[in-house]
Amino acid sequence: MKKTGKILKLFESHVGKNERVECLELRVDENGVLNDKFYAKDRERSVLISSIDSYLLATKNNIEMQYGDLGENIIVDFNPYHFPKKYQFQIGEVIFEISQYCTLCKSLTKIDSKLPKLLKNDRGVFAKVINSGSIHKDSKVIYTER
Fold it and tell me: Per the count of CB atoms within 10 A, which of 13, 109, 120, 135 is most buried?
């Protein structure tokens, strides 16, 4: 069954800065997010997609975070963590394929020492770009419920 999700936030990491910058549009190609400091570094980790559920889980456990703190490029309003590797979905004209699940990240201890363990399986998914294009904050996500 086809489902529709929504993009809530978009972020880029600019070269020379240690912060995520919120934006209204991301341009992506097979090397990842154009203008992002991780562009063309690792195709299997081109784009990091997180769910609002990760932030809600942190809040529920009394951990305060700002959107973008998980290092993601895209925050969606559904949970993609149960999709299998190689699963494809569409955002606007762009087609993504899940390539990896986020692993435990020690850098999250800067936010809270409990956060890496709490989000071990709920931080996000890495996706590679199959079909290039632009993603806008109001873009719809088309996926098949599994």
Answer: 135
